[in-house]
Design goal:
seven-stranded mixed beta sheet; 388 residues; binds pyridoxal-5'-phosphate; three-stranded antiparallel beta sheet; single chain; 2 domains
């Protein structure tokens, strides 16, 4: 058997590699505390689960779903955008549901990137922007996100040649893995740059609803002129603890949505209607579970950041996302420090270079573990930071 060359070009998925190391440690009897993968530990809100159960009993949901998603689900997304961001979207031409946001992020380059075309990728960033580009035959070009620039890209550092060949640019704020947040003026600059260079701006908005301390995350679509050149990927996964459900959407520039629709008709057959009805319940229903989720993450963020500060680690408590992005001690690389954490303390944090070369010198802690485990994990960190 001879798998295709493109399989060899793919890096092993970062979390798969992490899972393997954790399994190894556990097999040796280590009680591993994982600040690794960003997968919410809290349950999906009860009314959402009940909406699914009710819908699953209705035979009308048992057949192939529509390729373009249930009209009521697209309508619910449009209403949510209007009330949350003041952005008006036509549910028929500007919204396409996805089988989870990752699915759409992966497929977008198939619709927009030809061999030889460039995709501008945040570095460090969510790995799928790069792998999707590679499998489409495109050339990922990294935009380094430096602490000095608040982990935002310096558009003026992009060469004319690269800008001329670029078809898409990926952004993600609040950011995974850096937890950086931006204001609307940043998106205004990004939209202007992409319009000037005829680039499709793709904003991954997975964490806009998980924010703290009065910070409200903007949508890239709320910027003047965005609707001509911008799409935004929305997810229910982190907002409503629905990572297992596989439902999300892409919204914005009609031409791009049209291309995604055309592509996806040939790939998947839509999202289980019962899951879409649950999605409607999540967007339209009571939001107290979301507020409680945010409060829980805020508490954990403070626990971890206060502890890190007391260990003389320079860390700014993030205003959004479910991560804390932490510089490693000077004597270490990202990789050597996370290995040390696992071997000396049974603690998992993801090495920053796994998200791109510019992530070197950092590790990412995820806040998706129970409070007691987080507290114990923090205690164990002390010994490692003290020795480093
Ligand atoms: C979790 C995550 C996603 C994936 O969301 P799904 O809707 O579960 O596929 C997308 N982008 C980023 C940056 C994420 O962290």
């Amino acid at each position: 058997m001879r798998p295709a060359k493109r399989i060899d070009r793919l890096p092993p998925y970062l979390f798969a590699e992490m899972d393997r190391k954790i399994a190894e440690a556990r097999a040796k009897g280590v009680d591993v505390i994982s600040f690794g993968i960003g997968d919410p530990d809290l349950p999906t809100p009860r009314h959402v689960v009940e909406a699914l159960c009710g819908a699953a009993k209705d035979p009308a949901t048992h057949r192939y779903p529509s390729y373009t998603g249930m009209p009521d689900f697209r309508e619910a997304i449009a209403e949510w955008y209007q009330s949350r961001f003041g952005v008006v979207l036509d549910p028929d031409t500007q919204i396409q549901p996805l089988v989870g946001t990752k699915e759409g992020i992966f497929h977008l380059p198939v619709a927009f990137v030809d061999p030889g075309d460039v995709a501008l990728i945040p570095d460090p960033g969510y790995p799928v922007y790069e792998t999707g580009t590679i499998l489409a035959g495109g050339e990922p070009v990294s935009m380094p996100l430096l602490a000095a620039n608040g982990f935002t890209p310096d558009f003026s550092a992009i060469s004319d040649d690269v800008a001329g060949r670029a078809k898409v640019m990926w952004l993600n704020y609040p950011s995974n893995p850096t937890a950086a947040c931006v204001d609307e003026s940043f998106f205004a600059r990004a939209v202007r740059y992409c319009r000037d260079h005829d680039i499709l701006l793709c904003h991954d908005a997975a964490y806009t609803e998980i924010t703290f301390d009065d910070y409200v995350a903007p949508s890239a679509l709320q910027v003047d002129g965005a609707m001509d050149c911008t799409i935004e990927f929305g997810s229910l996964s982190k907002t409503y603890n629905m990572t297992g459900w596989r439902i999300g959407w892409v919204a914005g520039a009609p031409q791009a949505i049209e291309a995604m629709k055309r592509l996806k008709t040939n790939i998947d057959s839509g999202i289980f209607d019962a899951v879409q009805r649950a999605g409607i319940a999540a967007l339209n229903g009571p939001q107290d579970d979301l507020l409680a989720t945010i409060e829980r993450y805020r508490h954990r963020r403070d626990l971890l950041c206060d502890a890190l500060k007391s260990m003389d680690v320079v860390v700014e408590p993030p205003r959004g996302s479910i991560y804390v992005w932490t510089p490693v001690p000077k004597s270490h690389t990202s990789e050597s420090f996370s290995t040390e954490l696992l071997e000396k303390a049974g603690v998992v944090a993801i090495p920053g270079n796994g998200y791109g070369a510019a992530g070197e010198g950092f590790v990412r802690f995820s806040l998706t573990l129970a409070d007691e485990r987080l507290e114990e994990g923090v205690d164990r960190l002390r010994t490692v930071f003290a020795d480093a």
